[in-house]
Amino acid sequence: MVRRGDDFHQRIDGLSCRIPFGGLIHLPVLQREAAGFKTDRGVVVDAYLETSAPGIFAAGDIARWPDPHSGAPIRVEHWVVSERQGQAAAENMLGGRRKYTDAPFFWSRHYDMSLNYVGHAESWDAIDIDGDIAAGDYTLRYKHEGRTLAVVTMGRDIESLADEAAMEAEVAAA
Fold first, then answer.
1. b/e burial code for range 23-34 (CB count within 10 A of at least 16 → b)
2. C-beta of residue 78 within 8 angstroms of C-beta of residue 85
3. Which long-range contacts (CB under 8 A, 24 or more apart) does 113-116 make?
4. What is the DSSP letter of 62?
5. For 54-77, what is each residue's pLDDT tens digit?
């Protein structure tokens, strides 16, 4: 392994791999664009997590990818998304052609309450409420034109997992 600037560069049996340490996200937008990366509230990637610079991939907090469920380019800052995107990007760096289609997911724990969010909704025209918000046992479905874009649950972990699976099945069937 050889250190070059802010990256480590390693050659393994003819394979070259660069491992950045997050420095890219701290560069001003003009520097990122000058380096060949298209940006729009993050580094823009395609469905395979490849940037506008051929052969360069981005994953995690910095990546803005085309979400197949919502149909919008999105960026999610949560370690679950980073981990899943990292796996897909690594496969693609090694010559695979795996589209990143996982439904965005995160959770937040506050004292003894756990809030789960699956999907992505920057805008919606309706919120369906099931349960008792004050009691911390509910499901919120954020919808646009009748289609569920995101689901928030509290006290309903199994339901959240089922909604995630349904969103991913919908994309797989398309």
1. ebeeeeeeebee
2. no
3. 113/154, 113/155, 114/154, 114/155, 114/157, 115/152, 115/153, 115/154, 116/152, 116/153, 116/154, 116/156, 116/157, 116/160
4. G
5. 888 999 988 999 999 888 999 998
DSSP 91-124: HHHTT------PPPEEEEEETTEEEEEEE--S--
Please say whether the beta carbons of 142 and 150 come within 8 A.
Answer: yes
**Contact (CB, 8 A) for 94 and 110:** no
Q: How far apart are CA 101 and CA 97, in angstroms?
A: 12
Report, as an integer, the average pLDDT of 30-52: 81
Q: Contact at 8 Å (CB) between 140 and 148?
A: no
DSSP 134: T
Tokens of 69: 């469920």
**Domains of the chain: residue spans and CATH:** 36-101 (3.50.50.60), 103-173 (3.30.390.30)
